[in-house]
Amino acid sequence: MKFVSPTEFVKDKLVSVQEYSLLCGRALAGLFSRPIYFSDIFTQMDSIGIGSLPIVVLSGFFTGCVLALQSVSSLKEFGAVSMTGTLVSLSMVKELGPVLTGLMVSGRNASGMASELGSMKVTEQLDAMRALGVDPIRKLVTPRVSATVFMLFWLTVISDAVGMLGGGLIGVFMLGLNGHSYWRTSYRALIYGDVVQGMTKPVFFGFIIATVGCYFGMNTKGGTQGVGKATTQAVVVASVMIIITDFLISRATIGIFGR
Amino acid sequence: MPDQTAKEPVLEVRNVSVAFDANRVLDDVSFTLYSGETYVLLGPAGGGKSVLLKIINGLIPPDSGSIRIFGQEVTTMTQNELFKMRRRVGMVFQESALFDSMNVEDNVAYRLNEEGVDPKESHQRVEESLAFVELSQAINKFPSELSGGMRRRVSIARALITKPDLILYDSPTGGLDPITSTTIVELVLKQRDESHTASVMITHRLQDAFFLATHRWDAASKSVQQIPNGGVDESTKFLVLNEGKVVFDGTTLELTHSEDPWLQNFLS
Q1: Is the separation of the CB atoms in B103 and B149 below 8 Å?
Q2: Domain span holding position A136
């Protein structure tokens, strides 16, 4: 392992933050001026949204199942088994749905974006694009950012729904709960602030996944080994940023809505 | 000798220097390219030739110095101005840099598609461009299905399709076998003599450089022929770089008659 001086290390990190911020700014600016690559946006929506659907449905469904299964033993001690639906729906909508979906999509798509753009970088395709008069940020990053933000929102909604369905099925068929009661308590447990919290998170997570994936891809150095490194870094950084942002959004929305 | 005072320079590189970390890659490089001229950039590998070409096209900013293309200063251009300027510049990359998810037609037509050219016209121009590089049969193939030489030819077709006013060739023969290299140099030569477009070509192969200087394209016989009586093409000039510094800037005859010991050793 190569050691660098603390000054160099801090400078390097600050430059990275500056470059990442510039990339984010230019990617967003690409949405508000011509040319906007709509066909690329739809292609990315298909790849990110439809492509991630199976893993999101499976992870959401089984998370709801295991949540119901695990919580019922604790709730039984307080004679509150009928609150299973409340616990599952609040957990899924406010926390597990957005975070798990974010992490799943991060694992699948931040890595994909980093490796795809990284390969383009090391084979000079990004330079070729610039040389041909096309802005790679507008052409490659903006469509990925907008598609990920849009699709992660709906993937989270689906994850929440199938998670609650999974919890319900476990409650009804394995724990002997009343189905009607489960759904009623699940639905009534959610207030406006909970839904806002759960729906705000995927917007930020989607932005993080796409911008981090593209940032590491576009800054890949050192051939195929560099592509592998960029891919790993993209997933790690995106996942950590998702968890940190989750805490910050949770704290902010609790401050605003009181729960 | 063409009257250079009457001509507007297509490209002016003045005192360009660049360093990456502590490594000085280019040191005070200057040269001027006039309309219709071809500059051959020679020098050992790692001498800063590719970096210079990327700086010329605004892909890398220099630390100091000035670059003027078509009379406009490149170093102070905004991103949008750079993209506009590059529409008049064709560039062939060292490893072709074809978009591997697109077929040959889409690669060659990339710039036309971006400019919203009618698909019929675009297809026709792709066919013309591919015919120029004698690769019409590969129009539907993907880059992974092509040999190294074929990829270079597609890359040349892509650079030439918009009939640019300046062409930058970054080692178009690098890594190719001698026969394929000759085919590529013949294409560069054909382009030089048919359209008289100003161009800069990097090579580290002396035989390619001197082939370009001593041969011409004969439109009547549609073949490359040696210039008779040991003549050389006057529009072809040489710039030799070593460790980022210009060690020679001049004509073919001046290069071959140079008494600089390093140059003589390099050329031998």
Answers
A1: no
A2: 6-257
